[in-house]
Every structure is written in C-alpha cells, then in structure tokens.
What we know:
By secondary structure, the protein is mostly beta strands. The chain is about 10% helix and about 45% strand.
Amino acid sequence: MFTGIVEELGRVTAIEPLHEAVRLSVEGRLVTRDASAGDSISVNGVCLTVVRSKGGAFTADVMHQTLAMTALGALRVGSPVNLERAVTPATRLGGHIVQGHVDGTGEILRRTPSEHWELVEISLPVELNRYVVDKGSITVDGISLTVAELGAESFTVSLIPETLARTTLGFKKPGDIVNLEVDVIAKYVEKMVANR
C-alpha cells in the first residue's frame, strides 16, 4: 500500500528483455536506502517488487501484461519516474490509500498555467468515471491528487509548484499517457451496495 506522495524522482537505467517480461532497472537513491529483495516500490503508480537493490538502484521484473495495460510500456532508458516506498504502520498518510494497482490509463489533454498553479486536464476512461467525484482523490502516475473538476470523459487537477517540481507531471505534455488508479474505497462501496 502507498499514499500517493512521491518521495523521489528516479530514472530508468536499463530495460532488459526476459521471457514474457522485462527487467526494469531504476536509479532511486532515497527509495533504495532501506530496500531489499521482496519489498514493494511504486513506479509511476505501479506496485513493483524489488528483485535486487544495490548502489542506489533497484531492479524489478515487469510482466508483458503490466506493460500493455499501463504506461510503463512507454518507458525508455533515461525516462524519469515517480517513486514511493510502501507505507509502514508509522508512515504519515499524507495522500490517500493507493494500492499501486492501475485501473487504466489517461491522456494529458491540455495544460493551463497560471501564476501560482497549473491546471491539467486528463482523459478518463468511461468505465472509471463512476468512481471519481469532484474534490475526491485520484492517483495519476502514482501521485495522489484532488479532482478539481469532473467531466463525462475527463477530469482536471490543479498542480502546485511543489508537485510540478518533484514529479513527472512537471514536464509531461499533451498527448502523453499516464497511469490512473481510482480510490479503492469507491469500488468497495459499489460492491457492497450492489450485493444488497
């Protein structure tokens, strides 16, 4: 489990093809400080299991299905990535409950800068719309964000300078694909109501 508060902007250092998977190597000095094999690290919102951690970098195996269903398939050597270690019982929950299980992808449609923040509109798959509400939480590339405005096929988030400086959303442009994870509580509520 994660909080959606990005700890570090890392960088992909290698992508090694394996049978039905790739081995992704990522530089991230902060998140690897206490990482060992079997630990979970969120990479752009996708929960990956550490295979090895050494010298400020870690490797994780990513199945082809994960590459196809998320924006991880577009990563190249040198790509920056949002990184977060899994929470512990002592971790502050500064964002919201994030599983690292991507529900779908969206496309950045437009960016509107202003003096103190930037509005970013992102497409929203129709099947995910029912889980998103105005002022509710959504995870974009592993970043816990508040929905500023919700449309039928898109939503808008307002990014403060800190988010722009510390995450990949600071430089992603219209046309770029991002990972989306809706609030898991909404999915549980839907199931409970449906079963009544």
